[in-house]
Amino acid sequence: MALITQIPKNSREEYRVTRDEFQGHDLINIRVYFASEDGEMRPDGQGASFRVSLLPDFMDALSKAEAA
């Protein structure tokens, strides 16, 4: 896993964008991480993964969302 960035969500959670490989597929993951009782940041069930080849489509969609 290669961490690309962390974005605060609130005082206890953050979004993490990573680049991973899973079963031979190059993926971008956007996941919510939370501070567990032991102080470690752990992923929860929220998030999305998509193939790196789809990144231009997601970038276009995010640009449209920002302009809206």
From TrEMBL:
Residues 10-60 form the Transcriptional coactivator p15 (PC4) C-terminal domain. It comes from the Bacteria. It holds the Pfam family PC4. One of its GO terms (biological process) is regulation of DNA-templated transcription. One of its GO terms (molecular function) is DNA binding. This is Transcriptional Coactivator p15 (PC4). InterPro entries: PC4_C, ssDNA-bd_transcriptional_reg.
